[in-house]
Write a structure and sequence with these properties.
6 helices, alpha+beta, 418 residues, binds fe (ii) ion, Immunoglobulin-like, seven-stranded mixed sheet, Purple Acid Phosphatase, chain A, domain 2, six-stranded mixed sheet
């Protein structure tokens, strides 16, 4: 299976619009069927209708951000049986819900492994662009008459926040019990959202794995959005893109949250130009737009890693680190090496003082088999081969990041000044 998938990735050509630098502002309420590495499917999503199938109860409900503007935009995704076509969200004030709620109709589509008869799944999606008010608490439910989900409460972020909290993890692939523990810790810590540095599953084409990953997260992703980076194990698969509603082309995009710009990149590319040209240009633009905001990047294969399994990714270092330097990116979070690592602050390829450079973090400890071998490198500050997750507390002045093992012990703390 590996060789087949790798061959598929190697042989496919870049899509026709690959020269387009995707705008980080793009938000569309259209529900498009993701293709991944499949041929153009040339079929439309099924618009909402009142049809309910045998198992219409919404499952694996996700609240997501399909736009850079997280204060005003949202997407809601869920699964049902194949026959259910009810794709509605009702969202409104908490008090007296559903009175006062506004109803939005979306669409749904079937997707699968790409092999005829190998399994199909239905995903429902409702996308709202610019329809919500920043800094507002809402209640919502999804589904339709006769098949409503339970209700969930969410709060849209204000443009500038005095404080907020991020949960950060990566590399859960194949170990969904551990991933469930990480998500539970994020929920207990009341993180505002989750960053994930890629490799959620072992085989991105396996819907069974995605369902195990979603099942382990319980209802947390219905209340706390996850912002994912694409990892090499996701295979650019249709299944990967079906799980999430993200801005732009969903491979590289930005979101703004309460005074922080987060740029997400994809380092599993079809050809080198996607690293060195398209994403490098996008990255420079996205960081220029960010001005004096907090600037964070997330991707999978770290530019700086002391772990000897995969080491540093020198292609990524050559393609993107100049922009991280130029724009004073505060921290970059990656995974791929299955351990916790933190670099010293780095600028222009050398160690610099605290607050003067970018801190490179490897967080690949959400369940995948651990890698214990590291080597002395000038940039390495901390390396701990254990399952773990990060909690980042952000204020306008500083970001404090604690790394925890799964027993809740702090294994590292660092502070990044604005
Ligand atoms: Fe990986």
């Amino acid at each position: 299976m590996w060789s087949m998938l790798l061959l598929l990735l190697a042989c496919q050509t870049a899509p026709e619009d690959s020269a387009v630098v995707w705008s980080s502002e793009a938000c569309s309420e259209n529900v498009d069927i993701p293709t991944g590495f499949l041929e153009d499917l040339d079929i439309a999503a099924d618009p909402h209708s009142v049809v309910l199938g045998a198992a219409p109860a919404p499952r694996w409900i996700r609240y997501q951000w399909p736009s850079v503007e997280t204060g005003t935009s949202a997407a809601f995704l869920w699964g049902t049986d194949l026959d259910t076509l009810a794709s509605v969200v009702e969202i409104g004030p908490v008090e007296g819900f559903p009175e006062g709620a506004v109803r939005y109709e979306g669409a749904s589509f079937l997707y699968g492994s790409g092999e005829v008869g190998a399994g199909l799944y239905r995903l429902h999606e409702v996308r709202l662009c610019g329809r919500l008010i920043p800094g507002t608490t809402y209640r919502y439910r999804v589904g339709g008459e006769g098949a409503w989900s339970e209700t969930f409460t969410i709060t849209t972020p204000a443009d500038e926040l005095d404080s907020f909290r991020i949960g950060i993890a990566g590399d859960s692939r194949g170990a969904y019990e551990t991933w469930g523990q990480v998500v539970e810790a994020f929920d207990t810590a009341e993180v505002d959202f989750i960053l994930f540095s890629g490799d959620m599953v072992e085989f991105g084409t396996s819907q069974e794995e995605w369902e195990a990953w979603l099942e382990a997260a319980g209802d947390v992703l219905a209340r706390r959005p996850i912002v994912p980076a694409h990892g090499n194990h996701e295979f650019l698969s249709q299944n990967y893109f079906a799980q999430f509603a993200l801005p732009g082309n969903e491979e590289w995009y930005s979101i703004d949250y309460g005074g922080m710009r987060i740029v997400v990149l994809n380092d599993t590319v079809r050809d080198a130009a996607e690293l060195t040209q398209e994403q490098a240009v996008f990255l420079d633009q996205a960081l220029t737009e960010a001005g004096d905001d907090w600037k964070i990047a997330v991707h999978h294969q770290s530019a700086y890693a002391t772990c000897t399994t995969h080491n540093s990714d020198l292609d990524v270092r050559a393609a993107w680190v100049p922009a991280f330097d130029k724009h004073d990116v505060h921290a970059v979070f990656a995974g791929h090496n299955h351990l916790y690592e933190r670099s010293v602050p780095i600028r222009d390829g050398a160690a610099v003082g605290e607050g003067e450079g970018t801190v490179y973090v490897v967080t690949g400890g959400a369940g995948a088999p651990l890698y214990g071998s590291t080597e002395e490198q000038w940039f390495g500050a901390v390396a701990v081969p254990t399952n773990h997750y990060l909690i980042a507390d952000v204020t306008p002045q500083e970001m404090t990041v604690n790394a925890y093992d799964l027993a809740g012990n702090v294994i590292d703390t660092f502070v990044v000044p604005r």
